[in-house]
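FAQ

Q: What does a record look like?
A: Structure on top, sequence underneath. For example:
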């Protein structure tokens, strides 16, 4: 059961909303579907970080500018690790991590090759 005024979840047998104080009656309540749990929101955040990590890793491998590649690769590695800490451990997270490491390594060796 959810409050029709603010949408907050109201427990069974509750007469007033704990958030806004609106009277909660069974006739007046409305279901807003299955609200997203905090775990789902956390996984979505991790998935977004994993996708960005993959994009940064691929860009670091393909972009021919060594200094920018190192920055993009390190950012991709950091985002992949953060995605894993958020609970998202799918293939996208692993691919982003690997691509970022490869992009950073290629940029490092390319920089050494240019300097010497």
């Amino acid at each position: 059961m959810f409050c029709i005024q603010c949408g907050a979840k109201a427990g069974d047998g509750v007469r007033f909303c704990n958030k806004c104080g609106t009277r909660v009656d069974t006739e007046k309540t409305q279901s807003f579907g299955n609200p997203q749990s905090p775990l789902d929101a956390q996984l979505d955040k991790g998935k977004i970080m994993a996708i960005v990590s993959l994009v940064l890793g691929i860009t670091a491998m393909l972009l021919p500018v060594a200094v920018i590649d190192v920055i993009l690769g390190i950012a991709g590695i950091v985002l992949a690790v953060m995605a894993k800490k958020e609970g998202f451990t799918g293939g996208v997270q692993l691919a982003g991590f690997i691509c970022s490491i490869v992009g950073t390594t290629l940029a490092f060796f390319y920089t050494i090759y240019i300097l010497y």
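Q: Is there anything notable about this one?
A: Residues 1-33 form one domain.
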